[in-house]
Amino acid sequence: MSTSYPDSVPVTVSVILPALNEERTIAACIRKIQAVFLQNSLDGEILVADSSTDTTADIARSLGATVIHPKKPGYGNAYLAAFRHARGRYIILGDADDTYDFSEIPQLLAPLEAGADFVVGSRFRGTIRPGAMAPLHRYIGNPLLTWMINVIFGTEYSDTHSGFRAMTREALDRLTLTTGGMEFASEMLVMAAKEQLKVAEVPIDYYPRQAPSNLHSFADGWRHIRFVLLMKPLPFVAIPGLLLSLVGILLMGFFYFKGNVESSHLHVFILGAILLMGGLQVILTGFLMKTYSVVHGYENKAGIIISLMQYHNLEKFLLLGACLVLAGVLLGFNIIIKWFAVSFGFLSEISTAIAALVLIVSGIQVFLFTVFQSMMILNENNNHDGSDG
Length: 389
Description:
- The protein is of the alpha/beta class and 389 residues long.
- It contains 14 helices and 7 strands.
- A 7-stranded mixed sheet has the order 3-2-1-4-6-5-7.
């Protein structure tokens, strides 16, 4: 990541505390950290990235901490601002709500001194005190998000949303961190995996908050899921969409050519149409997410996305979309001709009408995908003069 560190002599440990109205607990956190510095003869500094409207900043300054005021609110923005001021060879991340026991800092430093690049304090491998974590977070939210990151990125974390972490200065410099909200916690672990950092976990204790939590369970959970899907949209979005589409095609094709679609098998034919159109939309959405991830630097430009980011290939998609719409219109026009032939009487062409609908809607989906895709790569292609580099 791009950081600007002060020119003063580096210290051994920088402890960073993001704070939002933590006047009840900030003093206890700072005193515990200072005690660790004293007991372990550590040359350390404490940085409080404060976005509070209470007296948190005043209390932190009075106890000797350096207070930084991020220009933008948000968990990630607090850390990004503090990183620019941190001078330590080791960087400790922790919350200012006194839920983490900072006397355990030496446990996080030990793996770093043994050669690890990045250390996560795992609450699930340690002790979660009664009342410290809501059941929704303990049994659903955290396990689900941890599972997603482990499956998608091949990691083995046990607690991806622990806020008690440590890393070396070199590891921090290798991480490309940009997100400003709570998804910053996931981004850091994902980037650590992408950079193939040596990661270790240590068990820690987790204590109840003394003040109301600043977390928003569903909003913050969605931020994490959205970020993870953005990093790897094809396995979790495009491939399931492809499977849905294939099942839809099989159902439509099989029952259409059986010849009795208009009667007993019509409902299955309609189901196939729904799966095909829905699956196609999911596939195209996955490709758009992948392109967004590449354009904004989250993912490398590789694989099928290279072809989908070339204008001459997108022109072929425009033609494909137009052909699908035209085929659907012709099928629909054929139904109208048959209706004329029976003098506007009874007509049983439901399956043909459904097929026409699928073609027209699919063509529109492909056309709109192509338009949006070309918009997203406009600057990227201009910057590279139309090349793929």
